[in-house]
Amino acid sequence: MTGNGGVLFKALDDNCEHSGKGAGHAAALSHAQVVAGHAAAAADSFQPANDAADASPDRNSKAGGRLAAGFRRFEAWCAHVDLAPDLGSDIGSRKWLRGLATLLGLSAAAIAMWPDFSAVEAATAMPVHSRERDEFRSQSIAPLALGADSGRHMGASPLVRPLAKVPERPSIQLVSTLGQGDSFARMLRRAGVGGEDISRISELVDNAVPVSDLASGTQFDITLGRRPVPNAPRALDSLDFRARFDLDLSVERGAGGGLALVRHPIAVDATPLRIRGTVGSSLYRSARNAGAPVAAIQSYLRAVDKYINLEDGISASDEYDMIVAYKRSAKGEHEVGDLLYAGIERGGKPRLQLLRWGKDGQMFAASSLGKPRSVPIGQPVAGHITSRYGKRRHPILGYVRMHAGIDFGAAYGSPIYAVADGTVTYAGRHGGHGNYVRLRHAGGLGTGYAHMSRIAVANGAHVRAGQVIGYVGSTGLSTGPHLHFEAYRNGHTINPAGLSIMAKPQITGKERDAFKAELRSLLTVEPGAALAPMAQPESEPAEAGREIDRLEPKQIG
Question: Where are stretches of biased composition, namely Basic and acidic residues (predicted)?
Answer without folding.
Answer: 543-557
